[in-house]
Amino acid sequence: MYRRHTSHSGAANRTVLSIKKESGMADIKKDPATFDADVLIIGGGFGGLAAAIRIKELSPETSVLIVDKQTIGWGGKANKGAGVLWVLAPGDDIDAFVDFHVKNIGVYLNDQDLLYAMARESYRAAQKLADWGVKVMKSPEGELDLNHLPFGWSLAAADLDMMQPLKSKATRLGVELLDKTQVVDLLKQDGCVTGAVGFSLLDGRFVLFNSKATILANGDCDFGVMRMWANACGEGIAAAYNAGAEMRNAEFGNFYDVINKATGIPIVFGFDFLYNAEGERVSSKYIKGPQPDIPVSIILGMEKEVLEGRGPIYIDMAEFVESPEGGSGIFRWDRPHFKELFNRETAKMRKHQPPPGERIEVSLGFTGELSAVRVDREMKTTLPGLWAIGDTSYAGSAWAGAAEAPPGRLRGSGLMNALISALLAAPSAVGHAKETALSLPDDQEIGRAKEKIFAPLNRSHGYSASEAIRSIQEVVVPVRYSMRRNRERLEEALSKVEGVREKLTELYADDPHGLVKCHEASCIALCAEMGFRAALARTESRGWHYREDYPERDDANWLKWIIVRKAGDDMAVTTEPIPMDRYKIKPDRTKAVLDAVVDHEELVGVTPEMIDWWWVNMEKGYPLWEPNDHKSFVWEVPPPLGGYLGAIQIAEEKMGPMPPMKIRIRWDDPDSCPIPRSYEHAIVASGINSEGEVQAMILHEYEKSPRGTRMRSTMRFLGPVPPGLPEIWKKHDRAEVSTFPRFLPDLYRIWQVVKDPAINRQCSLAKNPRQKS
Amino acid sequence: MSANIEIRIEECIGCMNCVEACFLDVLRWDPDEEKPFVAYEQDCVWCFTCEIHCPVQCIDVTPHIPGQRIEPY
Q: How many CA atoms lie within 13 A of A592 on its CB side?
């Protein structure tokens, strides 16, 4: 029943078990329960396999053993999501990306050095994955087939069978695999991690690992809530914490996404297409400006709508499906395994949801994603001999800062973080293993470990693991505890979690499968406490952490990381200043104003009066105005009779590599615009959010020239500037204005037969020119 | 979560793909019969991986919908 791999590499001969049937079957009872390895990797998901492969590439003589509680090549999270990898493409502005991330996503809690390293390595890492045999999507020219996103980064993609080539590559390189074994605790000698202990799911035997270097790669804590991540129970986090390692950014383990209410399936990027029961668009109501991913405001907004009686919340599927985010755009690659899973799921769900294109009731799905093991830039934890990679240390590494993690408001960064962290950990772990001898535990320590691990099997009744897990879920899932936080509710949540933790000594199990559930319950409860304690300590709002009682960001007091560690039987919470002096991007640089200026070619045959007319009659010829970039147009507030002020348009425009975006633009008075003006005619286009707040403004100014009109456009960015956007906008603006001579004189002439000013609107934008400043 | 899992055992060729693919220990292997069996159905999250990777398509997973989900509001 078990395939037997025998290896003679490294310090000892080992026989390792995999569940897959093959020749050379072994009797499990006779197989040794002790495994020695130069490097032990706990968790055989995407990150664990990547680390193992890289270690073997660097040092073929180093023995590597991967242990997983389920089956290596199938477990983990990588093959159960969208299969996308966040990358910065060659030529992308890394400085601009880091600047944008630190200011708008990580909100200064980033380890900026590691963020740079992630950005620099991402493209090469994705290529390496392809070199290892994973089907990474490529163009006919052999380059990565990237999907550029609006904020200056891209997505690469792999098909969902990605784990199989990684497993094959690892075994070809001599990596040994041990399935169906739950690791419970780490072993230490003289403060250094020397191995781990656990048990087999198949026969319940005690398993001992002796290792020179140990890498935690067994994921984050998703609290067993979302079905595809049900296995991520924070076992690595708990093992590191219990061994004395520091935790960081535990307050950012509270991720929610929009889900289909009936099926619970996430609707990624669905947050922009939501309506309440009254038909009001709640996305516009709560989301200010374009967002790189789901913002906190829509989660709070959805809760508010429901609590105030305007629920349930719906998604307009027709609108979503047609959008770039809705499937055909962002996830456009041809991936057979992804498609097969998607089609199977869709077919099974058909009877549980309305026909395609109709509105679907949505809810909020809590995932959690607590990933707090603190690591440095080599993925070393604060314990010698212990590394943590992938989701185990996503937030703890701090590259993502104040973002829920993963996806950390960068879709695809879960996979990319796993990959890069594996590449960073490998040389460090190999170096350590080469300089370290195996240390074996004494019998007393083994005895204590066995007693702790198997205690639930000695009880026939008591506290059930499923009840414990459910009780924790009832605390972490509600928005009022995990997102709309305040002191009172956080203390209430902690009290409930403590109530569960007190009863964990009464857990009972019937068999090794049940024993796994008991261990998962303990880890989930520990992670919940860690998250709530860190959230209670941070008395401000920042990034993905929102405190109703401290709604403002407080840079004076909170440019600090929150550190959690075990102190005897207590959980100690302390703070550590962020080394801002060392970092390039500092908070006081956020208020810069940036102008992008385009001086257009002379518009031959176009008069300034025609352009005046155009601004208030745009619906008559919008697709003619740079046809590649302009998709749809509607007046939300039509121009007033004889004027233009206050008119609001919803314009769907495409700029450069970005997918089309619907932008809300209001015509404003140039006299109240701070941009200096030189030409006679002028209009201000203000990009506004749902509350009418101006996010960016464009001054179009023009006057008569010898052959037509000369024109200048100036865009002023008031808030965060996505990397590359000024140049993208300039190109777009130049293109659209350059089409005026091709259509505007004819269009203007044709409409002169319509004399009704309510239909053929008239407006003069000539004003006295102001001095250039 | 959870689901009903039906394995039409007479059609099963004993490839073990389903047991290997299950990431929640729901399916186990019967060494005497050399066939899989549903050991912990209550833990199934209907990922459909066992269904998809069954070469003779003899597995049918029927999700329990709606499950006992906790209200977020």
A: 13
Using the 8-state DSSP alphabet, how is residue A550 labeled? B
Strand partners, A259: A266, A363
Residue in A713, A705, A699 with CA at minimum distance from that of residue A603: A705
Segment A187-215, tens digit of pLDDT? 999 999 999 999 999 999 999 999 999 99
The residue of B5, B45, B73 whose CB has the most chain A CBs within 10 angstroms, and thus the best one to mutate to test that interface, is B73
Q: Count other C-beta atoms under 10 Å from residue A772's C-beta.
A: 7
Interface test with A, best of B18, B25, B44, B57 (most A CBs within 10 A): B25
A-chain CB neighbours of B39 within 8 Å are 513
Among A252, A294, A290, A301, which residue's Cα sits nearest to residue A270? A294
CA dihedral of A732, A734, A735, A740, whole degrees rounded to 10: 130
SS3 (DSSP) at A450 = helix
Q: For residue range A335-359, what is the model confidence (pLDDT) as tens digits?
A: 999 999 989 998 998 888 777 778 9
Percentage with pLDDT > 70 across chain B? 99
Task: Render the burial of A286-311: b for 16+ CB within 10 Å, e for the rest.
Answer: bbebbbbbbbbbbbbbbbbbbeeebb
Q: Are A394 and A77 in contact (CB under 8 A)?
A: no
- What is the DSSP secondary-structure string of A705-738? ETTEEEEEEEEEE-S---TTHHHHHHHHHHHHHH
Report the residue from B40, B62, B66 with minimal CB separation from A513.
Answer: B40
- Would the CB atoms of A477 and B70 count as touching at under 8 Å? yes
Contact residues, chain B, for A477 at CB < 8 Å? 70-72
Give the per-residue pLDDT at A32. Answer: 53
Whether the upstream peptide bond of residue A355 has omega within 30° of 0, thus cis, is no
β-strand partners of A653: A630, A661
What CA–CA distance (Å, rounded) separates A176 from A188? 23
* E strand intervals along A217-332: 247-248, 255-260, 274-275, 313-315
A48–B contact, CB cutoff 8 A:
no
Q: Taking the CB of residue A143, how many other CB atoms lie within 10 A of it? A: 12
CA atoms within 13 A on the CB side of A524: 31
Nearest by Cα to A765 from A672, A663, A680: A680
Strands A386-388 and A360-368: unpaired
Measured at the CA of A253, the angle between CA A248 and CA A257, to 5 degrees, comes to 155
A94 touches chain B (CB under 8 A): no
ipTM of the complex: 0.97
Report strand pairing: A386-388 vs A247-248: unpaired
Three-state DSSP class for residue A523: helix
Query: H-type helices in A323-376, by residue range?
Result: 336-349
With CA atoms as reference, the chain A residue closest to B61 would be A348
Q: Which residues of chain A have pLDDT under 70?
A: 1-32, 327-330, 588-594, 719-720, 768-773
Query: Whole-angstrom Cα distance, residue A440 to residue A182?
Result: 20
User: Which residues from B are below 8 Å from A26, CB to CB?
Assistant: none
pTM of this prediction? 0.79
Cα angle, residue A731 at apex, residues A725 and A736 outer, rounded to 5°: 120
Residues of B in contact with A20 (CB under 8 A): 16, 20
Residues of chain A numbered 632-671 and touching chain B (CB < 8 Å): none
Contacts of B5 in chain A (CB under 8 A): none
Per-residue tokens: A247:
């935790």
pLDDT at A441: 93
- Interface contact A74-B22, CB threshold 8 A: yes
For B20, the closest of A20, A263, A479 (CB atoms) is A20
